[in-house]
Amino acid sequence: MRNATNFPGRWSRLADFPSFGEAVRIEWRAGRIADPVKRLRYLRRRMLQTKRRGFHGWGLIAVPLMIAVAAARLPSGSAETMERERGLAVPRAAGAAPSMPPQVWLIEKTEAEEVYSNGLRVDRTFLTANRPRARFPVYSLAGSPVPWRYGGAPVGIVYHTTESLVPPFEEDQNRRLQRLGRNLLEVVRSERAYHFVIDRFGRVYAVVAETDAANHAGNSIWADGEEIYVNLNDSFLGVALEAQTGAAEAVTPAQIQAAKVLTEALRFRYRIPAENCVTHAQVSVNPLNMKVGAHTDWAGDFPFAKLGLPDNYSIPLPSIYAFGFEADPAYERALGMNFGGVALARAQIERQAAAQNTPAAQYRAMLRHRYRDIEAELKQNEGGN
Ligand SMILES: [Zn+2]
To answer: 328 alpha carbon to ligand 1 midpoint, in Å?
Structure first.
């Protein structure tokens, strides 16, 4: 992992916001390079050099600058381009403004159990360690592929289904329900798969310690406000409901109630914004084919409202609008994915490209290039650890 002290926090970034002199000079030089690919390379190189010297304004100006200069039609200046880019809507969930959950506190804790003021009970008997949570890179929504800061505490929740065998939820199935639930917990523990599992009876089990990363999200992307997170095992907590997509047995009312009080407690503890409580299908990507939805759990029907959350399916997918991933319509239909967020992200790409006078395909290619740079950097850091 890169030394965190090299990078500014989000506020010092604003304090360091530069004059446009240098940017304009670079833009002018780049404008004299005829080959668009060479031009782009020059800009990238200058961007990284400047970043290393401690120039922190690139997060806001780099992409508009690169796009403006790489595109055939040149806007009149960096400041104008930046203004236009900043005017592009930053996504929010439809409906009410995100609210913070009620206050939740621990009322009792033993080796075996935690009990909370909102009725949450967490069984700790399967609790295990994994690797400690790493300081995770946080990127600006557009601009440099270099992180603008590092985070430490969880910023969100990813909901999963366990996709394990689910018998009918009936009294005469009780022994089977118990046995399968127990087997599942053993598997989740050995794979360090999730932080929490909610079984069919609505019992909440802490499995991977909250201080550690869980192997739940894989290649994944989410964003809030002006910040984007890539590969969420360290930055998001994984909560799995014992359930099987497409099975006749839906999640039980007890599971929904448990997911609600667990969500409240986690949101309160870590100050997690509502729009960062999302499903695996929303965040999962496949970098090999640049498609969204590599994992498809909770591609639809997640009970956001019953958990006290806004309809986060309506948030445009950041993988699409920030990194140029695509959704395959046939695949979406087959899955019954009902994301408003896919269509909204597609529309957003079109608007962003139009605002830059750039064909959408070309614009998307630039976004993908940035993702590739970030991905390469993350892989390199993993190798170094
Ligand atoms: Zn999942």
So the answer is: 19
Tell me, in angstroms, the distance from the centre of ligand 1 to residue 241's CA.
10
- The 10s digit of each residue's pLDDT in 44-58 is 555 444 443 333 333
User: How many angstroms does the Cα of residue 1 sit away from the middle of ligand 1?
Assistant: 26
Distance 156 CA to ligand 1 centre (A): 15
CA of 297 to the centre of ligand 1 (A): 5
Domains along the sequence of the chain with CATH: 4-86 (no CATH), 106-384 (3.40.80.10)
3-state secondary structure of 264: helix
Q: Residue 64 is encoded by which pair of tokens?
A: 């508009």
Q: How far is the CA of 161 from the centre of ligand 1 (A)?
A: 6
- Other Cβ atoms within 10 Å of 175 Cβ, number: 9
The model's pLDDT over 334-374, given as tens digits with 9 standing for 90+, comes to 666 667 888 899 999 999 999 989 999 999 999 999 999 99
